[in-house]
């Protein structure tokens, strides 16, 4: 391409101003701006024209900023960094553009150093400065990618504490802060806040978060109006908030899980509505039908991409809420999600981490309903593990091959996952391998888990090479190679040999604090103790010694840990105590469990789950004396959820008068402070209790129960006469929403929800006539294809195939040499040729069809089975064929 003729920089500046004034934000517009800026900067630096003045420094600085931002819009981040280094302006006026380019190039360590030094220099200025705010956004995201969760949280706190006038910017910062906490969450982190209160958390105290929970978290999206005023505008913030509530549900009541489910419902509705409106705007005015359809398909694919993670988390909410209906809905969602993702031509563009977590949660849902081997195949695997031939296919103790195969299993890769997701998947894999008795596989999974707890980031060279391709610092593709020096770890292979694992292949899953790392190592020790218990190995430490050492490490870490990590350590310590109680108390007697629950840390003892379990154990210990159980349940408080738990305890023991007393106070007195779901639950329980004592009052309260308006009266005769729906052979490729479910998924759902004893995926064999019809249809389609290519003429008589084409040429009838002497007996004649003729007769389709028709005609004659034959007077033969 010829270089443009030299032009005075003032003329080029006028051209640049006109380009900016057009407001063209397309790629072509940015290309024009970039070329114009480059022409001005290069011409001004090397001008030798007499009388032409140099570009002023302020003008050059402004044009440089425009030039760099045009490069950023075009995705040419390397050129941004190279230009600033060439001009020796690194860390100068354009520090925001340089930091963003380094962030997009995944050079996070360099970006962190640049942001930290620049913010330290500008420490005296306020955070409302545009440059400082932009740098703080990039800095916080960089710390998030580096796995430095607490530091990123502090930056977000400073950013959100300032007065951000732009509401969209504030909501984006809130969404990123929630994602930062969710990505590296460890179970038990919120126990110190009392489980169901958020008054001590700065992020959950934010006005926007509180307002969203009180409005959209309490209402059902299906009951909202269709107006834009009821539509959730920022569905990304709602999605991140709901995800945070679900991930931290271990320390929350079920009310927060229900709120998360409502938020996700609003987020899905909002996303689909907004994308549908944008689709109508893009398609409007398009006259070409093909282009119009292509745009519609593209918009539908975009809608699927936006809705897929929301639906996956809706399935997680159903899984946490429990119940047969919720679990069935979760199963349907996960199967649909996975089936769409593994299609050869996947139109949804699903992210790899979404597929990995959907498969992991599906394994949790199918645990106990499938074999351990099948559940293990669903757990996502990292490249640091030797799956599937080396680990999955190894059977019992000692890693001996089971001979059953399984090496061909499709293992879901653990790519793009957050540290929390990586730790969960590795822990689940080690737990299942221990359950199978696979010593070598479990040891390897534990080794990788422990190694990942020490790695937060692999370095800029590995990350820039594409080895760290996902959010939150997960490991990347096994095929990508970093340029730096390879550090190696060793893990035991399934055969007992030492397998070298490159450190860059170890997933990044370092917890956010030292106390959380101790807690995760204690969980790994718990699995190791159980593995030793199963194998009864004489060498090494005993299981009890391993558990005792883990508890000792937790106590040591608790002495030097801060308040943030103490609750995590209490949570894991309780897990170890409960595991020991289950192992030692094989007969499940109540008293040993009561003693263990009484010795748990105070933060765990105060949890509603612990209190309810302890009350149930006291009730099982002495069924006549329920005073201790009632006292414990009453200590939960006066909120509706606690009183509902108390009524369920009384209901199980037939104490209906006590149930009625509590429920009537909820229904009659606390209607204003009770949610719709809680009110319906309380009313239904009250009707059930009154049905045992006062049927008339039960009928009065039953009338208060609302029946859905969409439930129409069913006509039995109409249901019997209606056509039974069939499964579609192919999924709707372009269908939006949840309609694009393949027949395989629906058959699996139908089989799981059918009669007992039916195997998963079991289907009926096809009819023989249906197979023949299908073959005939395929033949017609094939002949039509040949006819379109000019390779087949239906009007031209076709030569019949040689019926002896199956016989070797030397044995065919028209070969005189091969047929000579065929009438002779023995080896001279009827040998090979006769056998070949019989084989040919079997393979002759036309002859077989004719024989079948003749047999049908013969069968149409009257039967002679019942005709009696009169005796002829001849001597009858006996059994041996001799005459008597």
Automatic annotation (TrEMBL):
Skewed-composition ranges (Acidic residues): 278-289
Start-end of Low complexity biased regions: 843-854
GO cellular component: signal recognition particle, endoplasmic reticulum targeting
Domain of life: Eukaryota
Biased composition (Polar residues): 861-871
One GO MF term: 7S RNA binding
Stated name of the protein: Uncharacterized protein
Source species taxonomy: Eukaryota, Sar, Stramenopiles, Ochrophyta, Bacillariophyta
